[in-house]
Design brief:
The protein is of the alpha+beta class and 380 residues long. The protein folds into three domains: 7-115, Orthogonal Bundle (Butyryl-Coa Dehydrogenase, subunit A, domain 1), CATH 1.10.540; 122-222, Butyryl-CoA Dehydrogenase, subunit A, domain 2 (Beta Barrel); 226-375, Butyryl-CoA Dehydrogenase, subunit A, domain 3. The chain has twelve helices and ten strands. The protein has helices at residues 7-24, 28-34, 39-46, 66-79, 82-100, 103-115, 225-261, 269-272, 274-303, 308-333, 344-351, 361-375; strands at 122-123, 139-143, 146-157, 164-170, 176-182, 188-193, 203-214, 218-219, 263-264, 267-268. The strands form three sheets. Strands 1-4-5-8 form a four-stranded mixed sheet. The protein is globular, with a radius of gyration of 21 Å. The model has no long low-confidence stretch (mean pLDDT 93).
Length: 380
């Protein structure tokens, strides 16, 4: 398996890293507080074309690799969680439209998602379930020319500001379908908004009351929804882990910066205390491992391999890594790390979301264990 980056991937990484550090990082506090990019950066950000990277030119994409998009996501996340999250929400709608949608759906919605002129979202979670399709209560009933959708979705990112979303509903006792749903249409209501400790973005309930989805807005076959969900979320999970890899890289730099500028009796604490050095070494090793495995999984995606198992492993590794790194960078900063004036507090809060967002860790462990038990061996 080839782990080296192509010239194009390297160029994308460097260009995005430069934009993140020079344009986003100086405005990080403002961006994180409001959850959106300021107008002065928005057009420049959209001009990077990140969402379209993994898609073929004939469908309006840039014929790049999945790896190239994940590189860009990681570099953006070094500076702020907001812009890479915007990329991923559009991607998790664009990918199933491209892979399963009709030509009409692709021609109508992919250009806006690629350019980020429109905002995408994914809606599966409900008040009574976050993972199990058998517990879904949102229904889709066949009607003349389409489907009538009723139900409530919970914790849906961008559900109050998106233009379109992919929404999953039951079409039968054990069947789930995926639909293209538009926020501005009758029957769609954005409900209670949520506020989270780890990230400030638009998030909340979606209430569907006799929402009519025309037949062309069915994505794939009526019973293909869970397949679409698994594949879309596996890819989205990798992007989610890339966000935390960017935060991990930032945490190491924050630790280094503080350890070399904070002094004790005239000497930097990083040069004076072995306990600080041990933490920094551990942080660097864990960040290296996370980055290496992230791009190992990306290489599998670009090869066309099944990555359900690999995405679950990556999610577990990512959550464990960022929590330890966040703890170490906080300890290195001491009480100063609790202050909002220091970025260590942001990393610490962000890490709290890693075990529960985009697939709870216990569910990921089940996927990993069952896959290994079914195979009867571990290949490594």
């Amino acid at each position: 398996m080839n782990f080296s980056f192509t010239e194009e991937e390297t160029q994308i990484r460097e260009e995005t890293a430069r934009f993140a550090r020079e344009r986003i990082l100086p405005l990080q506090g403002e961006i994180e507080k409001c959850g959106v990019l300021p107008e002065s950066l928005d057009a420049e950000f959209r001009g990077l074309g990140i969402v379209g990277l993994p898609f073929p030119e004939e469908d309006g994409g840039l014929s790049g690799t999945f790896t190239s998009m994940i590189l860009a996501v990681r570099e953006l996340a070094y500076a702020s969680m907001v812009p890479p999250n915007m990329v991923l929400e559009n991607f998790v709608l664009a990918w199933p439209l491209w892979a399963y949608g009709s030509e009409e759906l692709k021609k109508t919605y992919l250009p806006g998602l690629f350019s980020m002129e429109s905002v995408g979202a994914l809606a599966f979670t409900e008040p009574d379930t976050g993972s199990d399709p058998r517990q879904l209560k949102t229904t889709a009933v066949k009607a003349e020319g389409g489907w009538v959708l009723n139900g409530t979705k919970r914790f849906i990112t961008y559900s109050g500001i998106c233009d379109q979303m992919i929404l999953f509903a039951k079409t039968g006792e054990m069947e789930v379908a995926a639909f293209l749903v538009e926020r501005g249409k009758p029957g769609y209501k954005a409900g209670k908004r949520e506020s989270f400790s780890h990230m400030q973005v638009d998030n909340g309930d979606v209430i569907l009351q006799d929402y009519f989805a025309p037949d062309p807005h069915l994505i794939g076959a009526p019973a293909q929804g869970f397949e679409i969900l698994l594949k879309s979320e596996s890819l989205g999970k990798i992007g989610f882990c890339a966000i935390y890899a960017g935060a991990a890289n930032r945490a190491v730099d924050l630790a280094l910066s503080y350890a070399t500028t904070r002094t004790h009796r005239g000497k930097p604490i990083g040069l004076k205390f072995q306990m600080i050095q041990e933490k920094i070494a551990r942080m660097a090793v864990m960040a290296e491992a996370l980055n290496s495995h992230l791009f190992r999984v990306c290489a599998k995606v670009d090869e066309g391999s099944d990555i359900l198992f690999d995405a679950a492993v990556l999610k577990i590794l990512t959550a464990n890594t960022i929590r330890r790194l966040a703890s170490d960078v906080m300890e290195i900063h001491g009480a100063y790390g609790l202050s909002d004036e220091y970025e260590a507090s942001r990393i610490y809060a962000l890490a709290a979301g890693a075990p529960v967002v985009m697939g709870a860790l216990d569910l990921q462990r089940v996927i990993v264990a069952r896959t290994l038990l079914a195979a009867g061996r571990y290949e490594g």
